[in-house]
Design brief:
Layout: E1 9-12, H1 17-27, H2 33-37, E2 53-59, E3 65-68, H3 70-73, E4 79-82, E5 89-97, E6 102-106, E7 126-131, E8 143-151, E9 161-164, E10 176-178, E11 184-194, E12 205-209, H4 210-219, H5 236-246, E13 247-252
Antiparallel strand pairs: 1-11, 2-3, 2-13, 3-6, 4-5, 4-13, 5-6, 7-8, 7-10, 8-9, 9-12, 10-11, 11-12
Length: 253
């Protein structure tokens, strides 16, 4: 949408056919007839029978609580959690916050790998994202991307969010955005798909600040670990290894 010269659309990253159709609708006027007829065009993202959406989540307590986006789970009544190399497990909804687009799920699977949440996000610092985007096309074992924290607010100076350049796609919704110490500084939420000027943005993506997530978790009786002092920074491979342990794919039915 165009509103006072600002962006015309923001795309949530949940892996749904509805989201894909919305993006395709925005592109109708700029895709040529020849391109439409090309046999090499990628096919739309398809969900398995009975699935409404997929997204990403990460553990926030040793009791087995998971944090994700509200838009990943809002239309569902049944949830399962997938982690490569492990059996799928059932999860149940504990609470949702539609305003801040957050949700917490509970499992009966105790966890030892739980990342601390950091209340400090610094402009320009490295940002690392782990998640399960387009897992029927890309790697089903998860994907890891690297970027920077490019703004300390979201669209329209929304102070609940940070802007990141780490690439994300449908299915990354609800995943962790991490700093160089392996702390969670945000919950991946959406990507910019177009500006009013017609420009196509390059890696303009948004995550909900960890401070907002901490308040939501505390209000619902979940005590997430908070980072109180910096440890030695890690390289990308080390962060990816840690993130793989606590990040899961959420399947919504």
């Amino acid at each position: 949408m165009i509103f006072q010269g600002r962006q015309i659309a923001v795309l949530f990253l949940v892996g749904s056919t509805e989201a894909f159709d919305a993006v395709m609708g925005c592109q109708k006027d700029v895709i040529s007839a020849a391109a439409k007829e090309s046999p090499g065009l990628p096919k739309p993202y398809k969900l398995e029978a009975g699935m409404i959406s997929t997204g990403t989540g990460f553990y926030v307590s040793e009791r087995g609580h998971l944090l994700t986006n509200n838009h990943v789970v809002e239309s569902c009544s049944d949830f399962s959690v997938r982690h490569p190399g492990r059996p799928s497990i059932q999860a149940r909804l504990v609470a949702r916050d539609a305003t801040n687009d957050l949700a917490v799920l509970a499992t009966d699977s105790p966890q030892t790998a739980v990342p601390p949440l950091s209340v400090r996000a610094r402009l320009g610092e490295n940002v690392y994202v782990y998640g399960y985007p387009q897992s029927d096309v890309l790697a089903s074992t998860g994907s890891f991307t690297i970027g920077n924290l490019t703004a300390t607010a979201g669209s329209g100076d929304d102070t609940r969010k940070i802007q990141i350049s780490a690439p994300v796609n449908q299915g990354n919704s609800g995943g962790p955005a991490l700093d160089q110490y392996g702390n969670v500084i945000g919950v991946v939420q959406s990507k910019q798909v177009a500006f009013a000027s017609g420009d196509v943005p390059q890696n303009v993506n948004f995550a909900i600040k960890s401070t907002i997530a901490l308040n939501f978790l505390e209000a619902n009786g979940v005590e997430a670990p908070i980072n109180v002092r910096a440890t030695d920074p890690m390289d990308g491979a080390g962060i990816a290894e840690k993130a793989r342990d606590f990040t899961v794919q959420i399947v919504c039915h």
